[in-house]
Design brief:
- The protein has a single domain, classed as Maf protein (Alpha-Beta Complex).
- It contains six helices and seven strands.
- Strands 1, 2, 3, 4, 5, 6 and 7 form a seven-stranded mixed beta sheet that branches.
- The protein is globular and about 55 Å long.
């Protein structure tokens, strides 16, 4: 395999790892950034996602020392925000929070924003925000109770996972599906390629 620059994914999310693997890229290290993801008062969804992705990337960079195996690597961070209008929905850990999210999303349109932040080996920051519009069907009490019982909602933006059972709730989706899952592949690859990361190296003999 050809030598390539190293890549750090500033996330421990299995979904983001699976998505970047789908693009033929294997991160050299996962460095999840443990940050406070609480939106600021009056903060707009797009601005919030951008700020959190930048903070995750900066935190991961700060944790890499001179003698680290991934010193000088590309660092990729992402943050996904689900919003109804200007209202940012939580990433619920409590079942009551998740129930409130599902009731709010029922029969309505909402937007999913994923902000990407790439730190180059020269420590330049590159950012991009991707927006997808999603419409849910009207959820019955049985839909909501059964989904809550699945536990799939835990820690997910807006209290649902489009790649799982909640995929059955989606009536319409306009934009990037992988953005809703948590890492918009087209934009991620374009961002990396634009900064000189060799995207196709991992494609050789991948079949």
């Amino acid at each position: 395999m050809l030598d390539r620059p190293k890549l750090v994914l500033a996330s421990g999310s299995p979904r983001r790892v699976a998505l970047i693997n789908q693009a033929g890229i294997e991160p050299d290290a996962l460095r999840p950034a443990d940050i406070d993801e609480t939106p600021l008062k009056g903060e707009l969804p797009r601005v919030c996602a951008n700020r959190l992705a930048h903070t995750k990337a900066a935190t991961a960079l700060a944790g890499i020392g001179d003698d680290d195996d991934v010193y000088g690597a590309f660092i990729l961070a992402a943050d996904t925000v689900v919003a109804v209008g200007r209202r940012i929905l939580p990433k619920p850990e409590l079942i009551d929070e998740a129930a409130q999210c599902l009731r709010l999303l029922s029969g309505r349109n909402h937007r999913v924003y994923t902000a990407l932040c790439l730190v180059t080996p020269k420590r330049k920051y590159r950012q991009r925000v991707v927006e997808t519009r999603v419409r849910f069907k009207r959820l019955s009490s049985e839909d909501i109770d059964s989904y809550l019982g699945s536990g799939e909602w835990r820690g997910k933006a807006g209290g649902y996972a489009a790649q799982g059972l909640a995929g059955t709730f989606i009536v319409k989706l306009v934009g990037s599906y992988t953005n809703v899952v948590g890492l918009p592949l087209y934009e991620t690859v374009a961002l990396l390629a634009g900064e000189g990361f060799p995207i196709h190296v991992g494609w050789l003999n991948s079949a």
